[in-house]
Amino acid sequence: MSNRIAVLASGRGSNLRALHAHLTRGAAHDAAGTIALVASDRRDAGVLALARERGIEAAVLERGATHAAALEALLRDRAIDWVVLAGYLRLVPASVVRAWRGHVLNVHPALLPAFGGQGMYGDRVHRAVLESGARVTGVTVHFVDEAYDRGATIAQWPVPVRPEDTVESLAARVLRVEHALYPRAVEAVVRGRVRLDAAGRAVAAPAPDGARAAFTLGEPEDVELASNIGAALGG
Ligand code: GRF
Fold this sequence. Notes:
Elements: E1 4-8, H1 14-23, E2 34-40, H2 46-53, E3 57-60, H3 67-77, E4 82-85, H4 94-99, E5 104-108, H5 123-132, E6 136-143, E7 153-160, H6 167-190, E8 194-196, E9 202-204, H7 223-232
Parallel strand pairs: 1-2, 1-4, 2-3, 4-5
Antiparallel strand pairs: 5-6, 6-7, 8-9
Helix pairs in contact: 1-6, 5-6
Bound molecules: 5-O-phosphono-beta-D-ribofuranosylamine.
């Protein structure tokens, strides 16, 4: 299976850069998938330039009444198997969610369902975390359904909140963990090791060699502190 991936994004594209680097790190024949298309709803999005620099088709899908039909037609025309959202600020049209159910993924910079939903993106998320007094935030990778940030969770990773944190320092720490978690979670799903079942749950399928599907992260700088938290709580 070709596993052709489309990335939908509205911003600078650091997650596209991390995903592309991860998928192209090994031998081409062993790649889990190929990013065949990057589409944005914003003509000036930095992600489009990043795509072109990597020889990936970059398309602009202006907002408006024909947006849903145009997006679905483009995904079909490019024979896309997987849709990966990376800072895509629009709701994925229900027709696309239906046609690619279980094949649309998103990354959110908090531990959903907390600090998620419509309007919760970017610095707004980290500001809400700091204002809440939460001592741990994190990253969530999930399947996309018809509502913002509601689909079944595929993977999460904790990121400690530090007393001296600002929105900027917390956002930067969370983004580094996104860049470690998202590419590995996308690879696990594209390789069939995690799938959306009929009941709408993310379930791990046994790896081909029978071992339980698991993927190890790189060592985000904060994993030690998160582990210490677990130990302190007897976890
Ligand atoms: C990330 O923080 C991601 O969690 C959110 O949108 C942001 C995209 O950042 N969904 P980038 O454009 O990939 O740098």
